[in-house]
TrEMBL record:
Cofactor(s) named in the record: a metal cation
Reactions listed under catalytic activity: L-homoserine + NADP(+) = L-aspartate 4-semialdehyde + NADPH + H(+)
Annotated protein name in UniProt: Homoserine dehydrogenase
Pathway(s): Amino-acid biosynthesis; L-methionine biosynthesis via de novo pathway; L-homoserine from L-aspartate: step 3/3; Amino-acid biosynthesis; L-threonine biosynthesis; L-threonine from L-aspartate: step 3/5
Length: 384
């Protein structure tokens, strides 16, 4: 019998909020499946906004599964990573030292066994770390859209070694949107247009409003279901969809930035993050929008239509905003947090490639991130 070989993928996770914690749980629960597939994910470090928990010797060991499980429980309960002190063989570093320790791991592992740096945070602050990791030959996986939607030079740098980056979950959560667009481009088939409903939150909110529910209530429910961004105004203001549009447009070769995307916001600037805290927006700001949203939905309904937040990407421009559509159109039939994306190209001209399914939620997003990590296995050393 030949000795079975296994790819070991060392991982450092940035962000252990809703998505990051689901990812850790999926990694632990998929151990038997991954064993059978000859692959093993070794979580060597986990960081949040203030600290990093890292294995004592990142070359030979990871954080054990019992610790990862306790870490998820502690973070869910609102406790800091430091509350886990004394529970295993690891070290804890606070910022700013935590950042340099991630770089140390990227430097040593990037040149030896390899490392996957996974960004499940919701901040722009990780971009320099991700760029350093790329320089050290590490692989990167992102659920966080922000590093790909800042300066165009940063996007270029992050995708410069395209075999070593995965960012499927940034658009459509677990849906294979990026993979499909990438395959079409690779076949020399020019993509002329991408159109779709790419916000799980706004899809859910709009279909609940059609059922007569109140805007302020359904936004809060969308937050509790894990569909929204940490500040739901990122969704309601169209920014989150615009980021997805920008990622797709840049993937299609457009050298554009957020300023080039026309974005419709569902809340007025007086309720913006510069003027109102997230807490106050949720508690009192949202209710101020109930009446106008109800009227918009009713007006569309009186014409036999529904409202959907639509994203359109063409060579002539990108726009995201509310559109009145027939109830029986592909977008009009969408319910709940489902996304739908239509991709038009030479091969898919009169009959577009359509991808549809759950487009938000911590579970499905984390599953997409895990699939991205596993997809990198062939780049890692195989050991007997
Ligand atoms: N939910 C969904 O359906 C989808 C989400 N995404 C993306 O996934 C990402 C994560 O979302 P979600 O889990 O809901 O967000 P959360 O706000 O729940 O979690 C964010 C995590 O990032 C940590 N963090 C903040 N700054 C840093 C930093 N500089 N370094 C390391 N960690 C940091 C936070 O730390 P602390 O715990 O200390 O606050 C927290 O643990 C977002 O970018 C979102 O857009 C993408 C597709 C779908
Ligand atoms: N907040 C986002 C989550 C996925 O990107 C959404 O609602 O679609």
């Amino acid at each position: 019998m030949p000795t079975p070989v296994k790819s070991v993928l060392p991982v450092v996770l940035l962000g252990c909020g809703g998505v990051g914690r689901y990812l850790l749980r999926h990694i632990v629960s998929c151990r038997p499946l991954h064993d059978n597939q000859g692959v093993s994910i070794r979580v060597v470090g986990v960081a949040d906004s203030s600290s990093l928990l890292v294995a004592e010797d990142v070359h030979s060991s990871g954080l054990d599964d019992a610790l990862l499980t306790n870490l998820c429980a502690a973070k869910s309960a609102g406790s800091p990573l430091s509350s886990l002190l004394g529970q295993g063989q690891y070290q804890l570093f606070q910022n700013p030292e935590a950042r340099s320790k991630v770089i140390d791991a990227a430097t040593t592992l990037g040149r030896t066994t390899g490392l996957v740096l996974v960004d499940c945070s919701a901040t722009y602050d990780t971009v320099s770390l991700m760029k350093d990791a790329v320089d050290h030959g590490c692989c990167i996986v992102l659920a966080n859209k922000k590093p790909l939607t800042g300066a165009y030079e940063d996007f270029q740098k992050l995708v410069s070694n395209f075999r070593r980056i995965r960012f499927e979950s940034t658009v459509g959560a677990g849906l294979p949107v990026i993979a499909s667009v990438t395959r079409i481009i690779a076949s020399g088939d020019p993509v002329s247009r991408v159109v779709g409903s790419l916000s799980g939150t706004l899809g859910y909110v709009m279909s609940e409003l059609e059922d007569g529910k109140r805007f302020s209530e359904v936004v809060k429910t969308a937050k509790s279901l894990g569909y929204t961004e940490p500040d739901p105004r990122d969704d309601l203001g169209g920014l989150d969809v615009a980021r997805k549009a920008l990622i797709l447009a840049r993937l299609l070769g457009q050298q554009i930035s957020m300023d080039n995307i026309s974005v419709e916001s569902l809340y007025p600037s007086e309720l913006g993050p510069e003027k109102v805290s997230t807490k106050d927006f949720l508690e009192s700001g949202l209710g101020q929008l109930d009446k106008s949203m109800e009227e918009r939905v009713k007006a569309a309904s009186s014409r036999g239509n529904i409202l959907r937040y639509v994203c359109e990407i063409e060579s002539t421009g990108c726009q995201v905003g509310l559109k009145e559509l027939p109830k029986d159109s592909a977008l009009g039939r969408l319910r709940g947090s489902d996304n739908v994306v239509e991709i038009y190209s030479r091969c898919y001209e009169s009959s577009p490639l359509v991808i549809q399914g759950a487009g938000a939620g911590n579970d499905t997003t984390a599953a997409g991130v895990l699939a991205d990590i596993i997809d990198l296995q062939d780049l890692f050393q195989k050991t007997a």
